[in-house]
Design goal:
This protein is α+β, with helices and mostly antiparallel strands. It is built from 3 helices and 4 strands, in the order H-H-H-E-E-E-E. The chain has 2 domains: 81 residues, no CATH class; 44 residues, no CATH class. The longest helix has 26 residues.
């Protein structure tokens, strides 16, 4: 069980260092926090599942696997709930002097085409948004 204690200690040190050095915007901080909590919960679940096996020492890999899955799920949850998703890939705000990068999203708009007398749905992706 000595190896388990070392892994748990490293995970805790990494978590505290990552939390203390996080200097991002509010939405990115929430995403980072959700990722870290997901990693901690995943490591705890991996530890619990490992302890339920017949030979826990043979299944130490459950802890980092649980932590990795937890980080990924926490990041996905953080991105989905914090509003990180933007409509444009690059947003440039000249008033504030800031540039932000994001994953572009596809938006659908309905337009009425007078030539063919039908409504049509147009999907678009904004790559750059510039605010003066």
């Amino acid at each position: 069980m000595g190896k388990l204690k070392k892994i748990a200690a490293l995970a805790m040190v990494f978590t505290f260092l990552a939390v203390s050095t996080a200097s991002a915007q509010d939405s990115m901080q929430r995403t980072l926090r959700d990722s870290l909590y997901g990693g901690l919960i995943g490591a705890l679940l991996g530890s619990a599942i490992m302890l339920l096996t017949d030979n826990p020492d043979d299944h130490l890999s459950y802890i980092p696997t649980g932590a990795a899955v937890g980080v990924l799920l926490g990041a996905a949850y953080g991105v989905a709930t914090s509003g990180v998703m933007s409509t444009a890939a690059v947003e440039i705000d000249k008033k504030e002097g800031s540039v932000s990068l994001a994953m572009p999203t596809i938006s659908a708009e309905q337009h009425y085409d007078e030539q063919i007398n039908e409504k049509e749905e147009i999907e678009k992706i904004e790559l750059v948004r510039l605010t003066f």
